[in-house]
Amino acid sequence: MKNLYLIAILICGFILTGQAQTVTGKVLGETAPLAGANIKVEGKGTTATTNTDGTFELKLAEGAYILQVSYVGYTTVFQKVNLAKDQTVNLTISLSPTSNMQEVVVVSSRKPTKISEIPGTVWVLDGAKIQEQARAGIPFKVALAQLIPSLDAGPEGRTNYGQNQRGRDALVMIDGVSLNSTRGVSRQFESIDPFNIERIEVLSGASAVYGGGATGGIINIITKKGQDSQPSFTTEVGVRSGLKEKSDHDVRVAQAISGGSKDWNGRIGMAFQKNNAAYGADGKQIFTDITQTDLQYNQSFDFFGSTEFKLTEYQKLSVNAQYYNSGYRGDKDLFLGTNYAGLLSNANLLEMRNGYSSDVDPKTSRANINANYQASEILGGQTLYIQAAARNEQFSFHPFPGQALIPGVLYSGSSIQNTNYSALKLVLNKDWNRVNLTYGLDADNENFNAQQALFDRVKAASSGGLINNTVATITRYPNFRVNGLSGFLQAQVKVTDFLSLSGGVRQQRMFVKVGDFVGTGASVPLAYGVGRTATPIAGGKNHYDVNLLNGGLVVKINAPQQVWVNFSQGFNLADPAKYYGQGSYTLVGTNFNLGNSINVAGSPLTGIKTEQYEAGYRYRTGIFNAQVAGFYALSDKNVKTNSTFNIEVFDEKVRNIGAEGSLSLNLKNGFEAGANGLYIKTQKQNTDGTWSLQDVTVASPSKIAGYLGYNGKVFGLKAQIFHSFDSKGIDTKPAIPKEYEIKGYTTVDLLGSVKIFTGSLSIGVQNLLNKNYQTVWSQRSTILYAALAKPETFYYAGRGRTYNLTYTLNY
Fold first, then answer.
1. Strands (E), 559-621
2. Comparing 539-553, 601-615, 727-741, which segment has the lowest mean pLDDT?
3. Are strands 21-28 and 88-94 parallel, antiparallel or unpaired?
4. Which in 193, 491, 509, 667 has the greatest CB count within 10 A?
5. Is residue 210 pLDDT above 80, yes or no?
6. Strand partners, 5
7. The whole model's pTM is what?
8. How high does pLDDT run on average in the chain?
């Protein structure tokens, strides 16, 4: 925290010398102001960066100047300015998109690369798109599904479990640092407030460049940085409500300060949000998600600080630090019926009721720090990138009833899961005339432990799960440590002006250590006084190597058009916490004897490799943009969740076949239209070599999204639609698996904004048509938890028509 306080003091202490002559202005793109555009005074060290509304200000002495105005992906403009004494000049500068996709991203190859040179499907969500959704009240996970063609429909609760990318797991990063853990807790998108996001870079499909987790793609969240100018401020206030009841309202407040000089800059952003009750289209309050938890009666706080120092002409250092906390704050919850009667037999007893209290509340808490050093022109003209990162996070879950080895008795408990992660990455890049070489080393360490608070069974049962007082704490999953050490090499060769080849290799060694563990089948009864001892499931150590390859080519048809093909491998490590520690127990006397078990010695984990083949085409002029890609992904192992909510790994092949694409039209008069979509089919191979449907709880549905709007200098209005298609899969929970269908749904949102005084007012109506639907996650949870409760327990409706107002002020 000392580092955060130091950053705050330094940024708040900016004092720049004022001058009498002033240049103010606004930088515009094709349809909207450009936030983060750079203004440089030629021949001087004076620079500025535009605010979120595209405005800037410079203080200069008398004289004639040339301003160089630039923005990634747009042509650079030079503007002459003559300043007399005490004069103020106001400019409006319009930039046009480049016609040859010069936009630069780092998500594909660990170093800045032009999109036109990447043999893969890349999407970039700029700050304007992200803020437009956030200020209209669209939840972050839902907005990402609207904007990223390869990403599934977003759950409306705390988790993003099952929100796959191209039917597989996505590697989610903040500023290049992984948020994924070996323990598969899906809260990567509950990690940052959109207020602190500058842009998001997305690579669809398996990738060998970053290592584990990227079998479906990579989503790199890039945070806002400071400006090389005098201090500037952004204040944001918002309110959201469905107007159903007085408790149906959410509030949001955010504040940022940014500034700097030619040698350093900094920014601090703070965002607070308080949610209350949420209601469906039928006017009824949505049930609390007692499985993965939701965001009703939730309070979140995001503190993000960043600073960058220009050490020399060829060296710079940046440091980012964040504290994020999101947790339940309320006294209303899902009543499960006295003695869980609503949960087990009579679903009519289920209702939202006051009186909830628990020693453990659902929460996500995360602290990150990330330092980046860059030095150019070293070791024979190479560029060096060094990144050091550390993360500490704690996740707690909702009280949930379970069956112990005590006949006819349910117990209630909440798990608390802790992860400590650290990483050191070193990358070197050398660029010759036609050859570019990137290579480096990655080292990371992850430590995981989990406890489960067990509650007073009598109070929990008699209160219908509302009162949860801790009587004991046990170990919930085996503790484990995973160390990774990797080396990689990536090369790109420009064979001709229109043809380039790329390829690389990554060799990753994983060291896994798992602690001894008494399974919950024995530890729960022991905690409640049944038996005295238990035989632990043995832990142990193992290690394995994963070798990953990739290769591709890009053909430049002309400046705005390219086609590409590629092959890439990615891998996942099955969750050790849910894989190990499984065993059957029998009470003999006072000891729980261990029967069959899954342990390190008998079932060592290895990487689950995915191979992807892809072909695509893109076209971009700035006015009309299009991109489409077809893909085929195959892995040789299948991971399934069993009836005890642990996982099993099967030697059976799984494949994803599909296509994703996007079209957009941005006219100079401000009108815009676009559509994107994903078609996907997920199958598993049977023992006879034929292919059949995959488990419905993990298979991704196809989807389509679109929008039509107008974005002018004073006001803007947009209507957007999202449709998730019906999808079929196999329900493997019954003794005889059967086919099951996940029902799709359609929503329409209305987004608008208008300039008011020195700020802007954003207006949003989510689910404009007040559509009544059951979320995809809710339908999956009724299958996953079918053995524990009536399906109605897990009916989570989508939120009904909801209104949002946000006022943003830049000064």
1. 561-573, 582-588, 591-598, 607-620
2. 727-741
3. parallel
4. 193
5. yes
6. none
7. 0.88
8. 90
CB count in 10 Å sphere of residue 243: 12
Contact 539, 513 (CB under 8 A): yes
Report which listed range, 50-54, 213-217, 250-254, 291-295, is most confident: 250-254
**Tokens 């994983």, residue?**
510
| CB-CB contact of 235 with 269 (8 Å) | no
Contact 262, 247 (CB under 8 A): no
Helix, strand and coil percent figures for the chain, each rounded to 5: 10, 55, 35
Q: Give the side-chain half-sphere CA count within 13 A for 755.
A: 13
Name 495's Cβ contacts closer than 8 Å, sequence gap at least 6: 434, 501
Q: Report the percentage of the chain scoring pLDDT > 90.
A: 66
Q: What six digits make up the tokens of 337?
A: 């019926």
Neighbours of 538 (CB within 10 A): 18
Looking at the predicted structure, is the pLDDT value of residue 642 above 90?
no
If phi > 0 it is left, if psi is from -120 to 50 it is alpha, else beta; for residue 589 that is left
In whole angstroms, give the CA distance from residue 279 to residue 775: 13
Instruction: Indicate if the pLDDT at residue 17 is higher than 60.
Output: no
CA pair distance 601, 664, nearest whole angstrom: 54
Cβ within 8 Å of residue 597, ≥6 positions away? 519, 537, 538, 582, 583, 584
Region 357-376: what's the mean pLDDT? Answer: 96
DSSP 153: P
Three-state DSSP class for residue 304: strand
- Candidates 182, 240, 277; CA nearest to 572 is 182
- Torsion angle defined by CA atoms of residues 72, 73, 75 and 79, in that order, rounded to the nearest 10 degrees: -30
Close Cβ partners of 70 (under 8 Å, ≥ 6 residues apart)? 37, 38, 40, 76, 77, 95
CB neighbourhood size of 459 (10 A): 16
Options 3.20.19.10, 3.40.50.2000, 2.40.170.20, 3.40.50.300; CATH for 219-224+236-251+269-810 is 2.40.170.20
How many CB atoms are located within 10 Å of the residue 16 CB? 12
| Whole-angstrom Cα Rg for the chain | 27
DSSP symbols for 508-564: EEEEEEE--B--HHHHHHHHTTS-SEEPPBP-EEEEEEEEEEEEEEEEEEETTEEEE
pLDDT at 12: 40
Q: Provide the 8-state DSSP code for 210.
A: S
Q: How far apart are CA 731 and CA 728, in angstroms?
A: 10
Residue 418, both tokens = 């802790």
First to last CA, the chain: 28
Are the C-beta atoms of 661 and 629 separated by less than 8 Å? yes
In which region does residue 380 sit, left (phi positive, over 0), alpha (psi from -120 to 50) or beta (all else)? left
- pLDDT category, 248, cuts 50, 70, 90? very high
* pLDDT value at residue 1: 45
- Say whether pLDDT at 25 is over 80: yes
Spell out the domain ranges in the chain.
Answer: 19-94, 219-224+236-251+269-810
In three-state secondary structure terms, 167 is coil
Residue 485 structure tokens: 């050490």
| CB neighbours of residue 557 within 10 Å | 11
- Provide the 3-class DSSP secondary structure of residue 209: coil
Q: What is the pLDDT of residues 589-633, one digit of tens each?
A: 999 999 989 889 888 888 889 999 999 999 998 889 999 999 999
Q: Tokens 């600080």 identify what position?
A: 305
Residue environment code for 632-652, b if the CB has 16+ CB neighbours within 10 A, otherwise e: ebbbebbbbbeeeebbbbeee
Pick the CATH number of 19-94 from 2.60.40.3550, 2.40.50.140, 2.60.40.10, 1.10.540.10: 2.60.40.10
Residue 236 has pLDDT above 90, yes or no: yes
- pLDDT tens, 448-492? 999 999 999 999 999 999 999 999 999 999 999 999 999 999 999
